[in-house]
Specification:
With about 190 residues, this protein is mainly β. The protein has one domain: Chitinase A, domain 3, CATH 3.10.50.40. The protein is globular.
């Protein structure tokens, strides 16, 4: 099975949480576009096969919001990054997520192609997965790399380039081939 196809299967499983069910109603998370962009660029480096995670420029970050409530997602107006970017919007407490942990999260996904929320676990139920697992039910590489170090109660934003997302495949409505993904993820618990 090809790498792209393997990660597409994960979206189908996650898609049951509401890929097609996201709408712009007042109870759904919203997407906004910032009025300013940052001219600073962060560079990722590769060490031992793992890609370093660059910070999301301050002007491109979503608002922190309130823990326990669905976040508002900001899709930057700047060009999409070519490396994984991350920012902790709310810092959690307790042990940090490590590879192999089973975790439960809430998340909202917006895409660069639509500048809209296309999926949200907040409209259905939290999502549980094992960090670094392979095969059916696993998540895209950007999630496996991006959730490491999160603590319960924390909220992290990830901007995931196509190479760590769904690549040149469109796994479902609202996600184009070669799309850059903007996730805001709340860590509910390490199971």
């Amino acid at each position: 099975m090809s790498r792209v196809r393997r990660w597409s299967i994960a979206l189908v499983a996650v898609g049951a949480l509401g890929l097609a069910g996201c709408s712009s109603s007042s109870s759904s998370p919203t997407t906004t576009t910032p009025s300013t962009t940052s001219s600073s660029a962060a560079t990722a480096t590769t060490t031992g096969g793992a890609t370093a995670i660059a910070p999301i420029p301050v002007a491109d970050r979503s608002p922190a919001g309130t823990a326990g409530t669905a976040p508002t997602v900001v899709v930057p107006t700047s060009a999409p990054p070519t490396q994984l970017e991350s920012a902790d919007l709310i810092t959690g407490s307790g042990p940090a997520v490590t590879n192999g942990d089973s975790i439960t999260v809430q998340y909202v996904l917006a895409t660069y192609s639509t500048h809209q929320v296309v999926q949200s676990s907040w409209t259905s139920q939290p999502f549980t997965f094992t960090v670094g697992a392979t095969g059916a039910g696993s998540v895209i590489p950007g999630w496996d790399q991006g959730v490491i170090g999160m603590q319960a109660g924390g909220r992290r934003e990830l901007i995931i380039p196509p190479s760590l997302g769904y690549g040149n495949s469109s796994p479902g409505a609202g996600i184009a081939a070669d799309d850059t993904l903007v996730f805001v993820i709340d860590l509910v618990k390490i199971n």
